[in-house]
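Render this sequence as a predicted structure.
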Amino acid sequence: MRRLVEHVSFWVSFILFKVLINLTDTTPATPDIAVSGLWSQFLFILQAQLPYFAVYIPAVYAIFLLIDLYFNGRLKFLVALLLAVVVCAVTTPLLLVVNHTFILPMVYGRSDFEISFGIGSLLYYLFSFLAVAGIAGSVKLIRSQLKFKVLEQALLKEKADAELKFLKAQVSPHFLFNTLNNIYSLARKQSDKTAEAVLKLSNLLRFVLYEASQAHILLMDEIRLIESYIELEKLRYTNRLRIKFEYEVDDQSRKVSPLILTHFVENAFKHGAGESRFDIEIHIRIVLTQDVLTATFANSKGKAISNSNSDKIGLTNTRRQLEILYPGHDLTIHDNPDQFFVSLTIPLPK
């Protein structure tokens, strides 16, 4: 129904355009008939244009049909071209007949006009038809391009959403798996802090199950998750860990994608404290000011650095999530012999 309305609207607009062009033409096209009054002139010219469009419209759609059949692979190019020539060959003399049978008698008030199929007349009506078909074709092409772009954007968004869900489905279990390893380490040592660690894990688990599946969460909720994760890691590494966590947020209503910052914190512990027998230093700073989120993560490194694929899941997937969700972000990573440093900047407009 919508498509029908669009087509009818186009042809009505086009006919009115042709009428207005003729209405404003100061050339005396009808010397034998004087029509007084603007409205009467409008109706007179409209009546004179309608017979032409009774031929134009079906002929234009016949050309469109041939084009669609060609692009759909149902007609070969030469066949489509030959049929298009046939449409033009039928339409051109038909327009001439309409002009002499309906238009001229109406304009001049007599019907004794002889139809002459001269080359000049045929070329005039051929180019007249091609002009109408060209304008209609241009509108169709523009509309098709706009429709294609909308469809393309929808498909890209659907693909990105599907990929994002897949990435989150990978990362959330990976995050919990690393956390469970921490508790397992405490349990092996028969530490008194195991029960406290399990309690903190339940809070993290609640977040992963109910919050991480959302598209966005409050930045402050992400920061509180990081604080809980840090407290859990402190139970494992005790005095060997020296950590400094700072944050400044000028608008607590801003939102981010869940775990988008926590992955870098997890990485700092995994490849810092987790791979060194010596004291380890971790410095995390998160600042939101003037619609820009800046986060830095720095950790000292042990001598033996693991490069297993499982260890890279969180960081690799976070990179991809940033590309999808925040195409204007800036991520810098420096992997030095004694320090691993990450700097992340994300525009967060309201």
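Summary. Strands lie at 217-218, 241-249, 255-256, 280-289, 292-300, 330-335, 339-347. Residues 2-117 form one domain.
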